Amino acid sequence: MKAMDSNRNIFSFTIVSCNFLYLLFLVLISFSLGCNAVQSDIDCLKSIKNSLEDPLNYLGSTWQFDNHTEGFICKFTGIQCWHPDENKVLSITLPDMGLKVKKIFVSIKNRTKRTMIDGSECSDGIEVNNDPKISKLEKIVTRMSFMELAKATSHFSQDHEIGKGMLGKVYKALVPNGWNVAIKRLNASENLEEEFVSEITILGSLRHQNLVPLIGFCVERDERLLVYKYMPNGNLHEWLHTTDDKAKLLDFPLRVKIAVGVAKALAWLHDGGNFHVVHSNISTQSILLDENFDPKISNFWEATLERQNDMDSSMCLLPLVDSLDFTSYKKDVYRFGVVLLELLTRKESYQLSCSSLNLSSSSFASTLDVDKVLLGQGFDAMILQLLELASNCMKFIPNQRPTMLQVYLTVAAIS
């Protein structure tokens, strides 16, 4: 092991042979210090492969980099990802199969992660925000370059704009690693720092098949951007409320599939994760749909997180509560009931309440308010069961509403 000129802050490690534990140690060092963005995960795996002698072709059979689909590296031998359709490595496990280290170069900058260009690399002199709070956020989600995101959206041109919400405009972009992403550019005129931090800290720390993946964020001067995996089918509200032709494509089994996915995610947030989260803002606008119409919950900027003893220090950026009372959870239950009714009736959420639809009455079996395209297709009995479930979710007294776990089990059984 030989150190080069310390003024250059670069170290070269040369190994001629090693046992498995030392090999694993070097691989982990190479990955943890040299890899910090999604594209870097791919690049670092290439470097690791190139740095190893593999006489038995143990890696060669699966470590192929000619594939550009999302999640392709998750199929590599010894690689575990955060999510099977994200090229973000969680862990590397390489058993001793005759692998030997040739040479590993590890670059170490004088900061913990090189996930964003520094001021000298910005062609227009944009100032980089180096707030200590940002360093904590970098431990959760990759920090990305404003210049790269601006370039990917043609400087946030209208041609790339795909939506506008309460926090700002959303743009579709193709980033250098071949991913399609959705970039939310927060309104600079509003003070949205708390919402920005909440979205990164909560959503960035969670991994579930029915939560939208948060890929990265950007902070430079007054700019605040959030980068998500792009959901090609937009949000559920658009499918239900824009045109009749679009809504007809959502047949009953597909609507139930969406309801099951949303209920599953909420039940997991309430009871199944390492910490308990109340979303507080569930609506058809916050439910995104991927290419298979699997639902992905987004918009965690109003979410509430319960304090845990072993909570990571980065979570201290949030206003935590010591204990979430049952009424907090039951707000999510009520809002899910509204979403369920929107799926069944195609009425807007402001039109839906127990009183307006007479949900509290058993005579609601007439199904007068149900979307007509759903009736007479052999699903009427299941529709009535779901209407009853929606009624229970929307009971006026919170403690009379079911838990989200009970809701999920009921919807899953009906489907």
Automatic annotation (TrEMBL):
Molecular function via GO: ATP binding; protein kinase activity
Membrane topology note: Single-pass type I membrane protein
Keyword line: Leucine-rich repeat, Repeat, Signal
Keyword Lipid biosynthesis in annotation: no
GO cellular component, one term: membrane
Domain of life: Eukaryota
First and last residue of the signal peptide: 1-37
Principal location class: membrane
Subcellular location, record wording: Membrane
Keyword Repeat: yes
Domain Protein kinase residue range list: 156-414
PANTHER family for this protein: LEUCINE-RICH REPEAT-CONTAINING PROTEIN DDB_G0281931-RELATED, LRR RECEPTOR-LIKE KINASE FAMILY PROTEIN
Protein name listed in UniProt: Probably inactive leucine-rich repeat receptor-like protein kinase At5g48380 isoform X1
Organism from which the protein derives: Nicotiana sylvestris (Wood tobacco)
Gene name for this UniProt entry: LOC104227407
